[in-house]
Design goal:
Elements lengths: L6 H18 L3 H7 L4 H13 L18 H11 L4 H8 L12 H12 L4 E4 L15 E5 L2 E12 L6 E7 L9 E7 L5 E6 L10 E11 L4 E2 L5 H38 L1 E2 L2 E2 L4 H29 L5 H26 L1 H4 L5 H7 L10 H15 L14
Parallel strand pairs: 1-4
Antiparallel strand pairs: 2-3, 3-7, 4-5, 5-8, 6-7, 9-10
Helix pairs in contact: 1-4, 3-5, 4-7, 4-8, 7-8, 7-9, 8-9, 9-11, 9-12
The structure holds flavin-adenine dinucleotide (FAD).
């Protein structure tokens, strides 16, 4: 097993680190204070990121993306974790890989403009009555001539206010559970689409999480992504990479930043005539954080490496989601403690991170649901899926 990072990847990672620290971090305070990122500033960071080749790095080169391997994407996302969610979204893009299912004219209409950063897509699966149970939706797309009529509603759609179109799950057939669900690309401007309330959140200032309503929205063949009845399969088959990079690796990156801050503070802050880092109870918080980070980081990279080998590390990505999100939660809590009153004060980014990171255990599948996925994998296939090459350690 070779853990060395090649020189060209190191160069890429250090230029992403520089971009994050010099261009994005200085904007964090402005977003927190105003509750949004000014459209001109958002445009400016998008253009800078595109000029540097940082936009849509996850997408293949043949559609104009950066073509990074999964391991490279993970390393890049570790750096993105050093700034806030909204700034990462605006600068690096959230170009969902489900758009690679676009065929024929769909590519020019949806996929390519998304990769170029001209149009953005949000995922609209969750409904007030269907969250963890993604197959329990009541939004319907009823066949009508050679198209469908969409009715229903969604909520908690991240980036909804900023997005130009939505990937919407809807029930197209009476088949049980997931087999009756399809996914449609629906333009925000289409008649019958209403972007509703921006749902206020505990953290993630500057972001938007909206309700959507669909009232007799007329859809044609060009709106259907992939085959009818395969909607959940398409979304769940590609969202793993989002979980791995945007949640797993970014969480580890944020935790790493916090540990660096805690370590510096433990060396510099003196109480009782000595640096607080001399106290074993403070040391143990640093050590536990380092252990949390090192294990989550390795798991992220291993799952990414599996993807690069053409394997499907579904259960491992679920482990990453739980491990990284919960590790960051623990590290953020310790960071508040080690900084004392300053950790609770808005003068430092720690309290923002503490609020922002809580959702990582909830969205894109709660920790409980991902534990269910891991346990089901174990019960179905023994240890076989836990190690990288699909063989059990004993094999
Ligand atoms: C900030 C934010 C952004 C989001 N962005 C998006 C988005 O862009 N697109 C989108 O479609 N959705 C989005 N969501 C929705 C998110 O994915 C859901 O909130 C999440 O899947 C959980 O669903 P729920 O909130 O309905 O909780 P519920 O499903 O009602 O769960 C409530 C509790 O019950 C537990 N539970 C449920 N089922 C089981 C089970 N089988 N076993 C054990 N425990 C269980 C859960 O773990 C949880 O603790 C977002 C949510 C938030 C808060």
């Amino acid at each position: 097993m070779n853990f060395a990072i090649p020189e060209d990847t190191r160069l890429l990672i250090s230029s992403i680190r520089r971009f994050v620290e010099e261009e994005l971090c200085p904007l964090e305070e402005q977003v927190e204070a105003k509750g949004n990122l000014a459209p001109d500033t958002a445009r400016e960071i998008l253009l800078k990121s595109r000029a540097l080749g940082f936009y849509a790095m996850n997408m293949p080169e043949d559609v104009g993306g950066g073509g990074l391997t999964a391991v490279e994407m993970c390393l890049a996302a570790l750096e993105m974790g050093r700034t806030s969610d909204i700034l990462v979204r605006r600068a690096f893009g959230t170009v969902y890989e489900l758009l690679l299912e676009c065929r024929g004219t769909q590519r020019e209409e949806w996929l390519l403009p998304a990769v170029r950063g001209e149009r953005t897509c949000a995922i609209a699966m969750t409904e007030p009555g269907a969250g963890s149970d993604a197959a329990g939706i009541t939004t319907t797309a009823k066949a009508d001539g050679d198209g469908w009529i969409l009715n229903g509603g969604k909520h908690f759609v991240s980036d909804g206010a900023f997005s130009d179109f939505f990937a919407v799950t809807a029930r197209t057939g009476p088949e049980a559970a997931a087999r009756g669900i399809s996914v449609f690309l629906v333009d925000k401007a289409m008649p019958g689409v209403t972007v509703g309330r921006n749902q206020p959140m505990m953290g993630l200032r500057g972001g938007s999480h909206v309700e959507l309503a669909f009232d007799d929205v007329r859809l044609g063949r060009k709106h259907l992504l992939g085959e009818p009845g395969r909607g959940l399969r398409i979304i769940l088959g590609t969202i793993g990479r989002v979980r791995l990079f945007d949640i797993g690796a970014r969480a580890v990156g944020t935790a790493t930043l916090l540990l660096e801050m805690m370590t510096r503070h433990a060396k510099n802050r003196r109480q009782f005539g000595v640096p607080i880092g001399d106290f074993q109870m403070v040391q143990s918080q640093l050590a536990d954080s380092a252990i949390d980070i090192a294990s989550a980081r390795l798991l992220c990279l291993e799952a990414a490496w599996d993807i690069d080998q053409g394997l499907d590390p579904r259960e491992k990505v679920s482990m990453v989601k739980v491990c990284s999100a919960e590790a960051l939660g623990r590290v953020a809590d310790r960071a508040v403690q080690v900084f004392g009153g300053l950790g609770y004060c808005k003068d430092l980014p720690i309290e923002r991170i503490y609020r922002d990171c809580r959702v990582m255990r909830i969205y894109d599948g709660t920790s409980e649901i991902h534990r269910v996925v891991v346990a089901r994998g174990l019960l179905k296939g023994g240890a076989a899926r836990v190690v990288p090459n699909g063989k059990s350690v004993a094999d």
